[in-house]
Specification:
The complex is a heterodimer of chains A (about 180) and B (about 260). With about 180 residues, chain A is mostly helical. Chain A contains ten helices and no strands. In chain A, helix 8 crosses helix 10. In chain B, helix 2 crosses helix 4 and helix 3 packs across helix 4. The N and C termini of chain B lie far apart (about 140 Å). The chains are: A mainly alpha (about 180), B alpha+beta (about 260).
């Protein structure tokens, strides 16, 4: 059942078969939690938001268009938007504007804290290779939901550089995490 | 398209993070569907991001809270809605299936009803005709009874009126009751008078000089089945005559139109 294809999962959600939500959860919950946690910085809030994200997936599946994005991209967008809204309501708004570097540090800290498979994962080499400039792009594009143009503007770099940096960042991620 | 260059451009990474404008997102989706190599690369990027997020979560998946399945309790509602919808749909289909024969039956019933109404109307007309006929027969019967009663009386005598050449000299029977002055005429040999004309009965009280007194018009238009016509005559009559006059009748008989004449 866990090997069920993404297309089937989407189809069953559309058919209001709630049993598949557990499969979606098993498949994506930790990843979504990672996105939420790296935006809100609160594990308690992240747990609540994760449930809200699952509910939104269930309720809004009718708006998902496979021609416009991957399913994962769509659910990450839901998680990201909810997290950013939550962060704003919790008065983090002013801080996050000036603490890009601090947030990157917290991402790195989270990576370091997650030592359950450290035996197979050279976190030090990974973090060193994924230096700040690549992490910045990943953070803005992936966790903050910035567009390519907004990222270029935010970091004051050309559009093409955003592309090349995200490419490089993902190469590093693939190298260490695949 | 150079697939390698496309992959290395970084656009697929932007695509997976959702950072491209909508039109470009659709364009990339189209290309991914066209080229399996692109799809494979996108899946790798996606897996890398998923792994990265999982590692950045700060916890392992065993520490995740359980999914609150009560969130999707509207499944039951939805199923209930679907069940209700299906129920309504089935009822609608059943109703439609019943409605069609019902409409046909109603149309048939309507036509039958119209036919029945027409038959009833015809029967009522016939009944009316029959009623009229019965009334007519009753009247005829009453007249006949009255005539028979007159004929049975001892005072009633048979008088024979001799017909002129107008009725080929045939005789015409008349039954006269002197005491009541009533007269029955067998009109069967008289031809039907022309339009606007009528037979007039004359009582002749004296032959010298000839003194005819009108005893009324013989009405041919009603009681055609009754060959006997009743009339009242002058009790002093010694003879009777019948002439053809205008419908209004005449003061003096037109002897050129004398049809029958006979003494008592």
């Amino acid at each position: 059942m866990s090997q069920i294809s993404e297309d089937i999962l989407i189809k069953k959600i559309r058919e209001r078969d709630s049993s598949v939500m557990e499969i979606v959860y098993q498949k994506y919950a930790l990843s979504l939690f990672g996105v939420i946690y790296n935006i809100t910085g609160s594990k308690e809030s992240s747990e609540e938001l994760l449930q809200e994200v699952m509910l939104t997936i269930w309720q809004k599946i009718g708006t998902y268009d496979a021609n416009k994005s991957r399913f994962y991209t769509w659910i990450v967008r839901i998680a990201r938007n909810k997290s950013i809204d939550s962060r704003k309501t919790r008065a983090f708004k002013n801080e996050q504007k000036t603490q890009t570097h601090e947030n990157i540090v917290s991402i790195v800290d989270n990576l370091k804290d997650n030592s359950f498979d450290s035996e197979y994962f050279d976190i030090v080499s990974f973090v060193e290779e994924l230096n700040t400039k690549y992490l910045q792009v990943v953070k803005l594009l992936y966790f903050e939901g910035y567009s390519q143009a907004e990222t270029a503007d935010k970091l004051d770099i050309p559009l093409g550089t955003v592309k090349s940096r995200i490419r490089k960042a993902l190469e590093i991620l693939k190298k260490y995490l695949s | 398209m150079n697939i390698r260059e496309y992959i290395e451009s970084g656009i697929l990474e932007l695509y997976v993070t959702g950072a491209l404008p909508e039109d470009q997102m659709e364009e990339v989706t189209k290309r991914i569907n066209e080229y399996p190599e692109l799809k494979e690369e996108v899946e790798k990027i996606e897996l890398a991001l998923i792994s990265f997020s999982e590692k950045a979560a700060g916890i392992d998946k065993f520490n995740l809270p359980s999914l609150d399945n009560s969130l999707f309790s509207n499944k039951k509602q939805s199923q209930t809605k679907q069940t209700i919808y299906k129920l309504y749909r089935n009822i609608s289909i059943a109703a439609l299936l019943l409605l069609i024969p019902s409409l046909i039956f109603n149309a048939y019933q309507y036509l039958e009803n119209q036919n029945s109404k027409r038959i009833i109307s015809d029967l009522r007309n016939q009944e009316s005709i029959f009623t009229d006929q019965i009334e007519s027969l009753k009247t005829s019967s009453t007249i006949a009874d009255s005539n028979i009663e007159l004929l049975k009386q001892n005072e009633t005598t048979r008088v024979t009126l001799k017909g002129t050449e107008k009725i080929e000299s045939k005789t015409l029977a008349v039954f006269y009751n002197k005491s009541s002055g009533k007269l029955l005429i067998d009109r069967s040999i008289l031809p039907e008078p022309p339009k606007g004309m009528a037979y007039q009965l004359w009582s002749i009280t004296s032959m010298d000089p000839l003194t005819p007194v009108s005893s009324g018009m013989l009405n041919f238009s009603e009681l055609n089945n009754n060959s006997l016509l009743l009339s009242s005559v002058d009790r002093n009559a010694i003879a009777f005559g019948i002439t053809l006059e205008t419908e209004a009748g005449a003061d003096q008989p037109n002897l050129d139109q004398l049809y029958a004449l006979g003494t008592i």
